[in-house]
Amino acid sequence: MVSIDHVAHKILTYIPYVLVLMDMRYEGVKCGRDGSVDNHMEMGKKLLAAGQLADALSHFHAAVDGDPKNYMAYYRRATVFLAMGKSKSALPDLSRVIELKPDFTSARLQRGNLLLKQGRLDEAESDFKKVMKSNPSDKEEREAQSQLTKSDEIQRLVAQARSSFSSQDYMTAAAQLDTVIETCVWDVTSREMRAECFIQMGEMGKAISDLKAASKLKNDNTQAFYKLSTIYYNLGDHEMSLNEVRECLKLDPDHKQCYSHYKQVKKLNKQIQSAEELIQEQRYEEAVSKYEAVMKTEPTVQHFSLLAKERICHALTQSQQASRAISVCSEVLQSDPENVNVLKDRAEAYIQEEQYEDAIKDYETAAKHSENDRQIKEGMDRAQRLLKQSQKRDYYKILGVKRTAQKKEIIKAYRKLAQQWHPDNFQDPEEKKKAEKKFIDIAQAKEVLTDPEKRTKFDHGEDPMDPESQQGHHHHNFHGGFHGFQGFNPFGSGPFNFKFNFN
Prior knowledge:
The longest helix is centred in the first third of the chain and has 46 residues. Among the domains are: 126 residues, Tetratricopeptide repeat domain (Serine Threonine Protein Phosphatase 5, Tetratricopeptide repeat, Alpha Horseshoe); 63 residues, DnaJ domain (Helix Hairpins, Orthogonal Bundle). The protein is an all-alpha fold. Helix 11 runs antiparallel to helix 12. The relative contact order is 0.03.
C-alpha cells in the first residue's frame, strides 16, 4: 500500500514543472498575440500598397481588436477608410490616434483636413493651430498654414452667404456658397442653403443634386428627403416623389410633413397608374374619367393638369371622339407647343375630322422636334394621301357619313341616296345623265365602304376603284357610264330586272 506521504512528495515534486509549463503557455499566448498583431499590421500594409483595400481593412480591423491601444493600427485603418472614400469612418479612428498619441501631427493634420471638408471650420482651425505648435516638419507646417488661411477665407464667405441669403439675394448667396463647397465638399449646411437658393431661383435640377448629396452626408436627414419629394411632386414626377417621401418615413414613420405628403402622392400615383392601365385595356372613356379625377385630386400643380389633359387627348383620339380630342389637345399645346405626343394625337384627330391640311401642319411641327419618329412619317404620308384623295373623290362624303360610321349606317345612307338619285326619277335628259353619274358614285361608295379590305385601303389614302392606284389588281369598272348597270336595279322595278343586294 502506497503511503500518503509518498504521494504528497510526488505531487510536490511535479508542481515546479507545472508552474513552468503554465508560465510558458502564458508567454506563448502573449507572444502569439503580439506576433499576430504585427503580422496583421504587416499584411495590411502590403495589401494597402497593392491597392487591395478590402483585404487590408480586414487585417487592420484584426490588429485593432488584438491591441486596442495600438495607435498605428487605428492610423493605418483610417488611411484605408480614406482610400475607400469612407471619411465618416476615418474620422473616429484619427481622433482615437490623437487621443493615444497627442503629438502625432500627421493624424492631426489629416483630421483637420477632414473637418474642413465637412465645414466644421472652428474644429479644423484648432487642429491646424496645434500642428503649428507641435514642432512639425517643414511640409506639415506649410500645409497647416495653407489650410488655416483657407479656413479663415471660408469663414468669411460663409458669413457673407448667410447675409446674402437673409437679404433674399439668392443668386449672390449661391455664387458664394459655390466657392465654399469647392473646399467644404461634405458640408451639409452649405449644400442645404445652396439648394434653397436654387429652389428660389427655379433651378430645380441643381437643388435636387444638392439635396441628394445632403441626404447621404447626414444621417437621418428627413428634411432633405421631404424637400426632394416636394420638388419632384411640383415637377410632375409622382413616382420619384413617392420614392423620396418613403425614404423619409423609413427614417421617421411619425414625421408629420412626410406622412401627410405621402398620402397625397400615393393617392395621385394610384389614380395615374389606374388610368394608364385603362388606356392599355382600351377602356378609353373610363381612362378619361380617371384622369379627370387626377385633376381634382391635384388642381394646383400645372404639370399634373397638363399630364392629365395630354392623356385625355390621347384616349379621346383613340376612341374616335375627334372633336373633343382636338379641343383638349389644343389646350395642352397652348402651354406646351412642342409636345410631340399631343401634336401626333391632334393630327390623328384632325384626320378623323377630315381636316387633312391641319393634320399635316401638326405632323410637320412634330417632325421638327422628333426627326426620326416613324409614327410621324407614317402619319404625314397618310394625311397627304388622304388630302390628295379628298380633292378627287371621297366615298364618305358621297354617302354623307363619317369615317367612323358602322356598316349599318353606311347601308342606310346608301338606300336613302339610291332612292333619291335613281335615274328613273328623272325625265329631263340632262338631269337623268347627272343622276346616272351620281347613282354610280353612290353604288361605288357603298361597295368600297361595306367591304373591309377595300375600306381599309381607302382609309389609307388608296382608292380601290381607281385604275391608276389599282394597276394590276382586279376591280369593277363603273366608268363605262350608267349603261354598265343594264339589268342592275336596286329596287327591282322599271327597266332594270336585276335586284340589288342591300346586305
